[in-house]
Specification:
31 helices; 5 helical Cullin repeat like; 3-stranded mixed beta sheet; mainly alpha
Length: about 850
C-alpha cells in the first residue's frame, strides 16, 4: 500500500524545526502500538506504562535526498502482534516505493522533506514489515488463565477477587488477541458446569428447608455470579461469541447449564419445585397467605430457562382443572340438595365471577406472579369447569326465580358469564321459554280475563326492563321476546284481541285524573300488545262497536285522544284498516251540521215545543250492525222522529232512515220529594219511566205490554232502575233480579247528592248476545276473505295442487285459521262452480272461468 503526499507549499521556511506531517492511518497505527507496548522482560501485559515514541532524524545518503526517517526503536517485541500489526512507512525521492538501502526490515520508516530544504512533488509512503516476528512469553496462556480461573472461583465462592476488574478484563482481552478465545470459552464453561453440579448436590442434601427457598437462593446466586463473570469476560462475549455462529452467549451458557444440571426433566429437583409451586397456588386459592414474591421469582426463573410452558404451565393447567372440577361439583350438588332457588344460583354465579377475577389477577403484571401467556388457557379452564359444564343446571334451577324477582344485577352477571363460554343461545332459549310459560298462565285462564291486559302490560314492561338492563339489548334476545309474546298471546284465539279493544275503550272513556301524556303512554302500551295479535280483525270489530257507543253516547274522554289512537292504528295496519273508523268520525261531524241547520229552521223547531232533539245520521257501511228492537214509543218521542224525518227527506230525497232505538238517550226532568233532578237515561229507560206519570204503580206484565220490549231487554232496563245503586223505582219483592211477578212503584223519596243523575250506564255494558253477534260477524267476514283469497290465487294459477293452495292461503291470510276451515271453504267454492277437481288427480284443483 502506498500513499502519495504532495507538497503544495512552495515557499521556503526559515524555521529550524519542522512538524512532520503524518496521515490518519499512520497516526492510528502509532497509537495502537503505543497503547499496547510494554517494557521488555515484563511477564504481564497489564499495568504497563505507555512507551515513549522516540523519533530519530537520519539523513538518507541514498536516493532519498532531503528525507528524514522516523524509527520506533523503543517498542519491545512482546508488544508486537502478528505481522499485520508490523507495518512501516517509507519511500524515496523518486517515488519508487522501495525501502532505503540496507534497511529492508525496519519497523516503521516515514520519509518526508527536509525541514530546511524545498519540498519536491511526487514523494511516496511505503509500508514495510517487522524485522523479526513477535513471540509470546513462555507460560503466558497458562498464567493468564490461572489468574482468570482464580477470579471465577472467587466469584462462585463469594470471596473478594485478588485482581482488579481492569486487569482481569485486559487478561481476557490479551488471550482473545492471541487466538486463545476458543480455549478460554471451553475452560470457562467447564468451571461453571462444575460449580453448578456442586450446587445441585447441596440442594439434594438439604431437607430441613423448603425446596422453593433453596432453589430460589441457588437461582439468585447463579444470576448474580453470571453477571460478574460476564463483566470479566466481556471482551470474549462481545467479540469471539458474537462472531462465531451457533455459540451461546455467556449469559445463555449459564442458563443452559442451570437448566441441564438442575432443572432437567429427569432431575427430581424440578419435579419437586413444580409440585411445591402448585401446592402454594392451591393454598392461596383456599384463602391462605403465600409469599408472592417467592413465587414470582421462581416462575420468572422458569421463563428465563425457557421451560415455563413445557415444564410448568401444562402441569399448572391440569392441576387447576382438577381443583375447579371438584369445587364446582361440590357446589352444584349443594344446589341440588337445597332445591331450586334464584338466590342460590345467584351466589354461585357471584362466586364464579370472583374466581375469574382472582385468576386474572394472578396473571396481571402488577400483583400477579404468573406469565401473561398463561391467562387465556387458565381462564378457559376455569370457565369450562365452573360454568360450561353446568349451564343447563344453572338455568333450570335459577333463571325462573331470577326473572320473577326482577334481579337485574344477577341476570346481567349470568348473561356476561354465559356469553364468555358461548352459552348465550342456551340462555336465550331459556329466556324465551320463561316468557312463553308465564304468558300462557296469564292468557289461558278465563278467571284472569278481567285483569288480563293489565297483567300482560306489566309483564311486558318488566321483561323489557330486564332485556335492556340485564341482557344489554341483545338483538337475538329482543327477537326471542317478541316471538314468545306472539306465540302465547295467540294461543287463545280472539279473546286477547277482544280484551285489548275493551281495555282501550275503558282508557278512552274514563279520563278522570289522567293527563293527556299518561293517556298517550297507555295507548302506546296497548299498541305493543296489538302488534302481537294475529286476528286483528277481531280487535277492529270490538273496537268499532265500542267507538260507536263512545261517539253516540258522548262518553269519550277526548276527541283528540280518539283521533290519536286512530292515527296509531292507521300507521300500524294501513289506511284500509281505519277507513270505516274514519267514516264514523265524519258522520258525527256531518250530523252536527245537520242539527245546526235543523235548529235554525223555526218550521221544525216550533213543532217540537219544549223538547230538545239531537239526531246522529249514520252511514250503515261504516257503523256496526245493530239488530232492530221493536218498542212502543210515547207520542211525544214519535212526533219528534217524524219532524226530523221530514227535515232530512226535504234535504235528501230518496234516502231511507232507520231508527236505532237501542242507542238513544234522554234527559228527563223529575220531581221528587227532596227536589227536582235531571235523570240521564237510555231511550228504553225513558219509555218505562214515562209510564209512571199516569200511575205510580205498575206490574212487570203491564210495563211489557205498554212498552213492547222483549223480556231480556226489559229485565235489564228494570234492573237498572230498581236494583242498582240509583233506585228511581221501588221493586216488590226486593231482590237483585227481576222476575215476571214483580211490581214496581215510583220512588218519590229518592235523593241524590248531584242534580244530574246518570242511570244509562247499562247502555255501555256489553251483553253476551252482543259479544256473540260481534264474533259471528268477524267469522263471516273471514269467510268472505278466505273465499276471495282462494279465487284470486286460482284465477292467477288456473291449476294448483291442494298442498300448494293451502301454503299460499296461509301466507296471504292475516288472521289465524285452521286447515279444516280452509278445506270447507274450498268445498263451498267447488259447490258454487268456482273450482273443480281435476279428473285425473283429485288433489289438484282447476279454476272455472
Amino acid at each position: 500500500m502506498s500513499t502519495r503526499l504532495r507538497n503544495s507549499d512552495t515557499k521556503k521556511r526559515k524555521t529550524t524545526d519542522t512538524q512532520l506531517p503524518i496521515s490518519h492511518f499512520q497516526q492510528s497505527t502509532l497509537d495502537h502500538f503505543a497503547n499496547r507496548a510494554v517494557a521488555d522482560g515484563s511477564s504481564s501485559l497489564t499495568g504497563a506504562k505507555k512507551p515513549r515514541l522516540e523519533m530519530q532524524s537520519k539523513v538518507n545518503s541514498g536516493p532519498a535526498r532531503n528525507g528524514v526517517y522516523l524509527d520506533l526503536t523503543s517498542l519491545s517485541p512482546s508488544a508486537m502482534e502478528d505481522s499485520k500489526y508490523g507495518c512501516g512507512f517509507g519511500g524515496d525521492a523518486k517515488g519508487k516505493g522501495k525501502a532505503p538501502a540496507g534497511r529492508p526490515d525496519s519497523p516503521i520508516a516515514v520519509t518526508a522533506p527536509l525541514a530546511r530544504g524545498r519540498r519536491e512533488p511526487g514523494q511516496k509512503l511505503v509500508i514495510k514489515s517487522f524485522k523479526v516476528k513477535p513471540k509470546l512469553p513462555e507460560n503466558f496462556v497458562t498464567d493468564t488463565w490461572k489468574k482468570l480461573e482464580q477470579a471465577v472461583h472467587a466469584v462462585h465462592e463469594s470471596r473478594p477477587v485478588a485482581d482488579s476488574l481492569e486487569e482481569l478484563y485486559k487478561a481476557c482481552e490479551n488471550l482473545c488477541h492471541h487466538k486463545k478465545a476458543d480455549e478460554l470459552y471451553s475452560k470457562l464453561r467447564d468451571v461453571c458446569d462444575q460449580h453448578i453440579q456442586k450446587e445441585l448436590g447441596k440442594i439434594k442434601s438439604t431437607h430441613d428447608i423448603s425446596i422453593l427457598k433453596i432453589v430460589h437462593e441457588c437461582w439468585s446466586n447463579h444470576c448474580r455470579q453470571m453477571i460478574l463473570i460476564r463483566s470479566i469476560f466481556l471482551y470474549l462475549d462481545r467479540t469471539y461469541v458474537l462472531q462465531t455462529s451457533g455459540l451461546r452467549s455467556l449469559w445463555d451458557m449459564g442458563l443452559d447449564l442451570f437448566r441441564e444440571r438442575i432443572m432437567d426433566d429427569m432431575q427430581p429437583v424440578k419435579l419437586k419445585t413444580v409440585k411445591a409451586l402448585l401446592d402454594e397456588i392451591e393454598r392461596e386459592r383456599n384463602g391462605e397467605q403465600v409469599e408472592r414474591e417467592l413465587l414470582r421469582s421462581l416462575l420468572r426463573m422458569f421463563l428465563e430457562l425457557s421451560i415455563y410452558f413445557s415444564g410448568f404451565d401444562a402441569a399448572f393447567r391440569e392441576r387447576t382443572e382438577s381443583y375447579y372440577r371438584e369445587e364446582s361439583d361440590r357446589r352444584i350438588n349443594a344446589l341440588d340438595n337445597e332445591g331450586s332457588g334464584g338466590g342460590n344460583v345467584a351466589r354461585y354465579l357471584e362466586h364464579v365471577e370472583i374466581r375469574l377475577q382472582q385468576e386474572v389477577e394472578r396473571c396481571s403484571a402488577g400483583l400477579g406472579y404468573l406469565d401473561a401467556g398463561s391467562k387465556k388457557g387458565l381462564v378457559t379452564v376455569v370457565e369450562t369447569q365452573l360454568l360450561k359444564r353446568h349451564v343447563k343446571t344453572l338455568l333450570d334451577k335459577g333463571l325462573h326465580e331470577l326473572m320473577e324477582d326482577t334481579r337485574t344485577t344477577d341476570l346481567a352477571r349470568m348473561y356476561t358469564l354465559f356469553n364468555r363460554v358461548g352459552a348465550t343461545e342456551d340462555l336465550r332459549k331459556a329466556f324465551s321459554q320463561y316468557i312463553r310459560k308465564t304468558g300462557l298462565t296469564l292468557v289461558s285462564s278465563e278467571a284472569r280475563d278481567p285483569t288480563m291486559v293489565d297483567d300482560l302490560l306489566k309483564f311486558k314492561t318488566r321483561v323489557d326492563h330486564l332485556w335492556e338492563k340485564s341482557f344489554a339489548k341483545n338483538e337475538s334476545f329482543g327477537n326471542a321476546l317478541r316471538e314468545a309474546f306472539e306465540f302465547f298471546i295467540n294461543q287463545r284465539q280472539n279473546k286477547p284481541a277482544e280484551l285489548i279493544a275493551k281495555y282501550v275503550d275503558v282508557k278512552l272513556r274514563s279520563g278522570k285524573g289522567v293527563t293527556e301524556e299518561e293517556l298517550e303512554v297507555a295507548l302506546d302500551q296497548c299498541l305493543v300488545l296489538f302488534r302481537f295479535i294475529h286476528g286483528k280483525d277481531v280487535f277492529e270489530a270490538f273496537y268499532k262497536k265500542d267507538l260507536a257507543k263512545r261517539l253516540l253516547l258522548q262518553r269519550s274522554t277526548s276527541v283528540d285522544a280518539e283521533k290519536s289512537m286512530l292515527s296509531k292504528l292507521k300507521t300500524e295496519c294501513g289506511p284500509n284498516f281505519t277507513s270505516k273508523l274514519e267514516g264514523m268520525f265524519k258522520d258525527v261531524e256531518i250530523s252536527r251540521d245537520y242539527m245546526t241547520s235543523f235548529r235554525e229552521s223555526p218550521r221544525y223547531t216550533n213543532q217540537l215545543g219544549a223538547i230538545e232533539l239531537c239526531v246522529n245520521v249514520l252511514t250503515q257501511g261504516y257503523w256496526p250492525t245493530y239488530p232492530p228492537i221493536n218498542v212502543n214509543l210515547p207520542d211525544e218521542l214519535s212526533h219528534c222522529q217524524d219532524v226530523f224525518k221530514d227535515f232530512y227527506m226535504h234535504k235528501h230525497s230518496g234516502r231511507k232512515l232507520t231508527w236505532q232505538n237501542s242507542l238513544g238517550t234522554c234527559i228527563l226532568k223529575s220531581n221528587f220529594n227532596k227536589g227536582k233532578k235531571e235523570l240521564s237515561v237510555s231511550l228504553f229507560q225513558a219509555i218505562v219511566l214515562l209510564l209512571f206519570n199516569d200511575e205510580t204503580h205498575h206490574t212487570y206484565t203491564e210495563i211489557r205490554e205498554a212498552t213492547g220490549l222483549e223480556d231480556k231487554e226489559l229485565e235489564r232496563t228494570l234492573q237498572s232502575l230498581a236494583c242498582g245503586k240509583v233506585r228511581v223505582l221501588n221493586k216488590t219483592p226486593k231482590s237483585k233480579d227481576v222476575s215476571h211477578s214483580d211490581s214496581f212503584e215510583f220512588n218519590a223519596s229518592f235523593e241524590y247528592a248531584l242534580y244530574r243523575v246518570k242511570i244509562n250506564q247499562i247502555q255501555m255494558k256489553e251483553t253476551s248476545e252482543e259479544q256473540k253477534d260481534t264474533e259471528e260477524r268477524v267469522f263471516q267476514d273471514r269467510q268472505y276473505q278466505v273465499d276471495a283469497a282462494i279465487v284470486r290465487i286460482m284465477k292467477m294459477r288456473k291449476t294448483l295442487s291442494h298442498s300448494l293452495l293451502m301454503t299460499e292461503l296461509f301466507d296471504q291470510l292475516k288472521f289465524p285459521i285452521k286447515a279444516a276451515d280452509l278445506k270447507k271453504r274450498i268445498e263451498s267454492l267447488i259447490d258454487r262452480d268456482y273450482l273443480e277437481r281435476d279428473a285425473k288427480d283429485p288433489t289438484v284443483y282447476n279454476y272455472l272461468a
